[in-house]
Amino acid sequence: MPDLALDLRFLRYAILVAEHGSFRRAADAMNLSQSTVSRRIQLLERRVGVPLFERSRSGVRPTPAGERFIREAAFGAEHIRQAVSSLSMEKRGQIGELKIVLMASLASGFLADVLEAFHFRFPNIDIKIEEATAQATAAGVLSGRLDAAFIPGEPRLPGCQAMHLWGEPLYVAVSKHHSMAARVGVNWEDLRDETFLVAADVHGPEVEAIIVRQLSGLGFHPRISVQRVGRENLLNMVGMGFGVTLAATSTQGASYPAVIFVPLAEGGEVFNSSVVWSTNNVNPALKRLLDLSASIAKTHQRRSSTVLEAIQRLT
Question: Of 16, 36, 65, 227, which residue is 20 to 30 A from 154 by alpha carbon distance?
Answer without folding.
Answer: 227
